[in-house]
User: What shape does this take?
Amino acid sequence: MYNQPQNQVLNKPTAAYILSLIGGILGLLASLAFIAIGALAYIAIGAVSNYPFGYYDTGFLGFGWSILIGLGVWMLITSILIIVFASKLKANPIEHTKWGALILIFSIIGLGGLLGIIGGILALVYKPVMAGAPQQPSPQQNWGPQPITRICPQCGRVVNENVKFCPNCGKQLG
Assistant: This one.
């Protein structure tokens, strides 16, 4: 017989996972763009500073490429961590507070974007429903007193107690 593991949940944190994953992927793409723009700026500034007729002082802007590359590397690291934490959230939703907090923190400090922040918040407020746990009745379910029924002696149909004639065969029930 199949026994479910203790950490199985009936409702998965799908929205938190998908938003965090998309936020991490977009952050990853943005980080690669920052690194590429920084590299192009380095090449362009290098070409200006080696001007054929002498040295051209680029001043503080000469180090702008390093800021872009540094931000790109930082965003790359945090985006990879956000993607890893999102996959950990999907694999182990019981620890949703830990993974949600890490997704939220790295989305904020790593410029991971709004999707990562929303995904982290959704992971924090997620309420797991454990497999095998007693279910709470929903408001749509009628858990009140059930009507008393009896069986028609002629056709065997189940009918309410207060019915005078069987709706199936028409026998008088008394």
